[in-house]
Amino acid sequence: MSADTDVEALRRQGRIVVVGASLAGLRAAETLREKGFTGSLTMIGDEPYEPYDRPPLSKQALLGRARPEDTALPRRRDIDAEWRLGVAAEGLDRDARQVRLANGDTVPYDRLLITTGTRARPWFHPEEAALDGVFVLRTRDDCARLHRKLTGGVSRVLVIGAGFTGSEVASVCRELGLEVTVVERGPAPLVGALGGVIGAVADRLQRKKGVDLRCGISVTALEGDDVGRLRRAHLSDGSAVDVEVAIVSLGAMRNTEWLAGSGVAAGARGIACDAGCRAFDVNGIVTDDIYAAGDVARSPHPLFDYQFLALEHWGNAVEQAEIAAHNMICSSPERRPHLWLPMFWSSQFGVNIKSVGVPSLGDQLVVTQGTLAEDRFVAVYGYRGRVIAAAAFDGAKWMGFYEQQIAAGAPFPPEYGTVDRRTGTLQAVDPGFPDPHLPTHGPTVTLTGHSPSERRVEFVPSHA
């Protein structure tokens, strides 16, 4: 049987399983049907809900301007799928081509797409994490519980971590009129994502809005009262803060544990896959029946020295899912690479923040529009003499232009005759990223090339 015949048989009567009832999972399923897949389609999700939109959970829904249950993702078309919701995938048998579920069921596949995404990193001490008043924010249920708490008469809130989510939550708390202390172990908010130069602007914004911002320290313990309610947080500088609510915002963990022992190259940094979204096995050989997309995937990008990028971006999840779906049901010559340019946005403290490219790769920075002092600007990042990224505070209209510059490998520092800049000569400075080995909040784009600490392949001699 030819490869083309195999592909056609797969399109007509194959079995595709999507593990992860997420944005990426839904968009992949829709794309499969749009491209003529008529076989069986199974969607597996550990939450009891069909795919919903997560960005509003730390913004409109947390403020009460939208209900968490109203965040369901709009459908582009009917996907005619079997939904297995509220039950997590627990294992993968590649030889039998089966996904094992937590309830003991097995689901067979011809092609498998993994879109399990990430989960919130929990507080490190389980007993403290279980105190009434300690929250993480990742799911619909998390948002509903936290909104009820914030609007239920509390007055003092602690946010642990000043990455994008933590900063957005702090902004919401201030809009709700709550006293907020933000504790960030790095030198400034957003420092892992945008660097210290831009982090200093975020620092100033938070303080101007009344946030009690404490950087360069960490929370060492959460203390409860006699009935298990949060009452105090102890900090590494020896001080303590009386609080009723603590929101733990220490970044995300990729949901790959269920793949342990499967032979898929998956770990804490995600699932390694090629530019066509095909997963690698632990020997570095690409599979042809297992694909990955969204936050859980990491793949090489030619614009960034073929570094493996793990992206926690809404747009990336959509684009990568569509590429994965296309490649799953076509022949090799028709496959396409996933080359989406990273983009991210955030709304906090009355400012719209947007970035394009990979700021954390930058070794130089210049401000090309506006000024840092007025909290309205565009900053461009350079890497080895070319434009690698841009970030804007209330300057989103420029991001399309810089997207083109990054894609074209434009030289750095930039010289644009038509740019409206009020900063005089473009003076390149160090963007101020912390040492990557120091414990601070990582960027929304993570470079995940080989690490010497990773387990090496163990070669077993063949007895054939």
UniProtKB/TrEMBL annotation:
The keyword Flavoprotein applies. GO terms for molecular function: oxidoreductase activity, acting on NAD(P)H. One of its GO terms (cellular component) is cytoplasm. Its cofactor is FAD. The keyword Oxidoreductase applies. InterPro entries: FAD-oxidoreductase/Apoptosis, FAD/NAD-bd_sf, FAD/NAD-binding_dom, FAD/NAD-linked_Rdtase_dimer_sf, Reductase_C. Residues 344-415 form the Reductase C-terminal domain. Keywords: FAD, Flavoprotein, Oxidoreductase. PANTHER family: APOPTOSIS-INDUCING FACTOR 1 (PTHR43557), RIESKE DOMAIN-CONTAINING PROTEIN-RELATED (PTHR43557:SF2). This is Ferredoxin reductase. The lineage of its organism: Bacteria, Bacillati, Actinomycetota, Actinomycetes, Kitasatosporales.
